[in-house]
């Protein structure tokens, strides 16, 4: 893989349905999650589901495409702020679909891509944007495990690692 991306935003929420809080930096704890986030605390909507969800990522390019009306869903031109998409990390220049099962570095940490995330109908309801669920199909982010913890900061590079 020959790409290099950037970490644009870091968000956490202490429990399900609570507004996301943006952080300048965050501590990632291997096997657990992001310090202060609902999935580390076991208070997330999907905390009891048998799936790796220590950190979730989404591409800024997806949010920009939605704002421009892509994909072409009748009536959908949605502005989704990085604080509103319910994922922890917003990236730029990172091909998340190519990272399933692969390791990559975010700042001083190492993550392993799990499965691609499914959009949540709740998000469409929460933001009051009809069609958002369909607009996020197949591009709603990546669930990841934390292999090597540490601190991440806005602006950190995101780089692929050899497996």
UniProtKB/TrEMBL annotation:
Provide the MOSC domain boundaries. 21-161
Enumerate the Pfam families for this protein: MOSC (PF03473)
For this protein, the record's InterPro entries field holds: MoCF_Sase_C (IPR005302), MOSC_domain (IPR052716), Pyrv_Knase-like_insert_dom_sf (IPR011037)
Query: What domain of life?
Result: Bacteria
GO MF, one term, reads:
molybdenum ion binding
> PANTHER family this protein is in?
METAL-SULFUR CLUSTER BIOSYNTHESIS PROTEINS YUAD-RELATED, MOSC DOMAIN-CONTAINING PROTEIN
| The protein's name in its UniProt record | MOSC domain-containing protein
């Amino acid at each position: 893989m020959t790409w290099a991306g950037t970490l644009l935003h870091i968000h956490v929420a202490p429990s399900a349905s609570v507004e996301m809080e943006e952080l300048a930096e965050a501590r990632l704890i291997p096997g657990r999650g992001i310090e202060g986030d609902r999935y580390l605390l076991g208070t997330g909507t999907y905390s009891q589901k048998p799936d790796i969800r220590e950190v979730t990522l989404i591409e800024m390019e997806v949010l920009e495409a939605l704002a421009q009306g892509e994909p072409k869903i009748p009536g959908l031109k949605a502005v989704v702020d990085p604080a509103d998409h319910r994922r922890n990390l917003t990236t730029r220049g990172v091909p998340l679909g190519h990272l399933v099962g692969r390791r990559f570095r975010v700042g001083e940490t190492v993550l392993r891509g799990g499965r691609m995330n499914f959009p949540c109908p709740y998000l469409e309801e929460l933001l009051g944007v009809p069609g958002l669920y369909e607009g996020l199909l197949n591009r709603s982010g990546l669930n990841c495990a934390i292999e090597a913890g540490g601190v991440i900061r806005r602006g950190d590079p995101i780089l692929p690692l050899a497996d």
